[in-house]
């Protein structure tokens, strides 16, 4: 079997998104709400996959970028109530700045060392949010006065098409020459440099793009939920869920991350009656996939390319 | 002046605990290149086991501590055989990607243990009955005898580890494996046996450190993440894979945290250590005594 081409995969994806657009006609608000969250998570996971799968950066702190974006947008709205789009733009810009800050150590450090820096970035952000409670709402969380819409359908469609467009951009990028160069510099930065590619520039670009989508998705999600808290945006567990989504779906596939995110959110919800055991089962399943099928769902579909 | 002594004494006890927790972590990385992100969960499991033994089985402090250590030990070996070893031997993942897979897998494993503990024993903080009770005055500072006991046990355990690694045949194999894994294979030592030995040593260290920590502070399933993070940062600060470096770093971090807690505010306790870590990684990415 020939590996699916970029155009064909995008077409299949578009078909799936169009079908999903008609879901509000018969699905309940509860299902729509779940999927809305799952779609935002899908964007988080895709943005993470671009950094890890392609640029080869072990980023344990996807929630640093998301959190900076979400909290900037939320705090701005809470203090001054400017138009929502302005808050979202500010959140995205802050996340990009955060991405650049995170990228600086990445240019110097390798592997686990960089991974730790990102973990530390999350812990520091979390500490500051808890300590600066008067501004951020601390451990209780921040309530945002505005929301984009109170209609389940509108929110669902915004999330769906936002995810679709982000996915299309990130996926095309990953299969473009830029994606190849990123992959090369992730695997062997010295050789990629020797071939005449500007590794620093490409890595910075990857960080900026990843931060852009993380921050934008984070800000949009704040105005969907109407609140921001450490537990939903920043906590290490959230970061782990994003990483698991990407790994479950199949790393280095971008689109697989969306499948992983939807699966993860759906499973956690389906098993919710079990309480703490539900997470045990979900993480257990993720562990089994990591141990037995390291290429994830998407790897199973497009197996020919990986096993070569 | 009392505050000075207080910081010196309190800092010493907490630093010794950090040192003990981080040594095992450093040992495993040095020998097999594995960063075990389920570290905190293993410690919490040891605490909860020791607590449960006292609480529901009415075991004495010694029996409880022994049960805690035994649980840390068994879980450590289980981690190696179920999670780490299969990933080290699989052919489905490229060599250079194994590191990230082991990180992800141990992280997942740690969260599974944490959730299981939360399910069966709730996430309330638990304290283990201390083996030594009472208060001793040292240079005018009222110090719980338990703190002194903790520092002594940590010191003894680290000394024993040093003897084991430097004076016994099995220990020397471990040391050699951390220097040159291929070389020791050529000398006819089975590398996987060395790994098992290291994980066994690590299990005992984690168990002891966990039980002592439980006598010192209240530990809940939430503590797993921060415990892993502190061991991770101490080991990176000291230089990944370097046990002496981890020891020095443990005291630096322990004292820095105690100083911050006493002089600024307990709320900022962990921040200076994290900033120091970031600064050290910028200036000297391989840590204080790192080789790689």
Gist?
Chain A is an all-alpha fold and 308 residues long. Chain A has helices at 6-21, 29-54, 62-80, 84-108, 111-131, 133-136, 152-174, 177-187, 189-194, 199-225, 230-233, 236-249, 255-270, 276-292, 296-301, 303-307, and strands at 142-143, 227-228. Chain B is built from 11 helices and 2 strands.
Keywords:
heterodimer, A: 308 residues, mainly alpha, two-stranded antiparallel sheet, 2 strands, 78% helix, globular, B: 292 residues, ABC transporter involved in vitamin B12 uptake, BtuC, two-stranded antiparallel ribbon, 75% helix
Question: What do you see in this structure?
Answer:
The complex is a heterodimer of chains A (308) and B (292). By secondary structure, chain A is mostly helical. Chain A is 78% helix and 1% strand. In chain A, helix 2 (29-54) packs antiparallel against helix 10 (199-225) and helix 3 (62-80) runs antiparallel to helix 4. Chain A is globular. The two termini of chain A are 12 Å apart. Chain B is an all-alpha fold and 292 residues long. Chain B has eleven helices and two strands; from the N terminus they run ααααββααααααα. In chain B, strands 1-2 form a two-stranded antiparallel ribbon. In chain B, helix 1 packs parallel to helix 5 (145-167) and helix 1 runs antiparallel to helix 8 (191-216). Chain B is globular, with a radius of gyration of 19 Å. The mean pLDDT of chain B is 86. Chain A binds chain B through residues 52, 58, 105, 108-109, 111-113, 115-117, 119-120, 123-124, 127, 130-131, 187, 236-237, 240, 243-244, 247, 275-277, 279-280, 283-284, 286-287, 290-291, 293-295, and chain B through 35, 83, 86-87, 90, 92-93, 96, 99-101, 103-105, 107-109, 111-112, 115-116, 118-119, 225, 229, 232-233, 236, 240, 267-268, 270-271, 274-275, 277-278, 281-282, 285.
């Amino acid at each position: 079997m020939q590996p699916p081409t970029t155009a064909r995969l995008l077409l299949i994806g578009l078909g799936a998104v169009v079908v999903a657009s008609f879901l509000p006609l018969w699905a309940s608000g509860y299902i729509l709400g779940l999927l809305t969250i799952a779609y935002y998570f899908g964007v988080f996971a895709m943005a993470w996959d671009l950094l890890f799968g392609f640029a080869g950066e072990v980023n344990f702190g996807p929630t640093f970028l998301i959190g900076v974006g979400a909290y900037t947008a939320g705090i701005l709205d809470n203090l001054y109530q400017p138009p929502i789009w302005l808050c979202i733009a500010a959140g995205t810009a802050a996340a990009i700045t955060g991405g650049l800050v995170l990228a600086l150590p990445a240019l110097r450090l390798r592997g686990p060392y960089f991974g730790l820096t990102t973990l530390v970035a999350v812990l520091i952000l979390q500490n500051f949010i808890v300590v600066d409670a008067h501004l951020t709402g601390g451990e209780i969380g921040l309530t945002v006065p505005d929301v984009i819409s109170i209609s389940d359908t509108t929110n669902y469609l915004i999330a769906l098409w936002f995810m679709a467009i982000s996915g299309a951009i990130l996926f095309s990028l990953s299969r473009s020459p830029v994606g190849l160069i990123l992959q090369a510099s992730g695997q062997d930065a010295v050789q990629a440099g020797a071939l005449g590619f500007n590794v620093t520039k490409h890595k910075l670009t990857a960080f900026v793009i990843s931060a852009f989508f993380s921050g934008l998705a984070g800000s949009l999600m704040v105005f969907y939920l109407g609140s921001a808290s450490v537990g939903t945006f920043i906590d290490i567990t959230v970061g782990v869920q994003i990483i698991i989504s990407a790994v479950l779906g199949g790393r280095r596939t971008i689109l697989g991350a969306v499948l992983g995110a939807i699966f993860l959110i759906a499973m956690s919800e389906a098993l919710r009656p079990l309480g703490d055991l539900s997470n045990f089962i979900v993480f257990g399943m993720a562990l089994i996939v990591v141990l037995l099928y390291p290429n994830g769902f998407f790897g199973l579909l497009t197996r020919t390319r990986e096993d070569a | 002046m009392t505050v000075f002594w207080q910081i010196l004494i309190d800092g010493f006890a907490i630093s010794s605990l950090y040192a003990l927790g981080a040594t095992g972590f450093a040992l495993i990385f040095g020998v097999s290149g594995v960063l075990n992100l389920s570290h905190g969960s293993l410690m919490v499991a040891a605490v909860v086991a020791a607590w449960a033994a006292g609480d529901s089985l009415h075991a004495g402090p010694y029996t409880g501590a022994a049960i805690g250590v035994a649980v840390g030990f068994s879980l450590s070996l289980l981690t190696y055989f179920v999670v780490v070893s299969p990933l080290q031997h699989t052919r489905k993942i490229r060599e250079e990607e194994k590191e990230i897979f082991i990180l992800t897998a141990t992280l997942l494993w740690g969260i599974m243990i944490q959730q299981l503990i939360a399910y069966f024993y709730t996430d309330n903080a638990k304290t283990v009955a201390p083996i030594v009770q009472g208060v001793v005055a040292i240079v005018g500072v009222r110090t719980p005898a338990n703190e002194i006991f903790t520092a002594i046990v940590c010191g003894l355990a680290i000394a024993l580890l040093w003897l084991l690694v430097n004076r016994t045949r099995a220990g020397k194999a471990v040391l050699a494996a951390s220097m040159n894994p291929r070389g020791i294979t050529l000398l006819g030592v089975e590398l996987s046996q060395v790994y098992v030995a290291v994980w066994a040593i690590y299990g005992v260290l984690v168990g002891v450190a966990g039980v002592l920590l439980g006598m010192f502070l209240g530990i809940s399933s939430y503590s797993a993440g921060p415990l892993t993070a502190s061991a991770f940062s101490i080991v990176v600060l000291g230089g990944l894979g370097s046990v002496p470096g981890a020891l020095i770093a443990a005291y630096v971090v322990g004292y820095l945290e105690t100083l911050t807690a006493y002089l600024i505010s307990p709320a900022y306790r962990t921040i200076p250590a994290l900033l120091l870590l970031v600064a050290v990684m910028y200036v000297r990415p391989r840590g204080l005594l790192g080789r790689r």
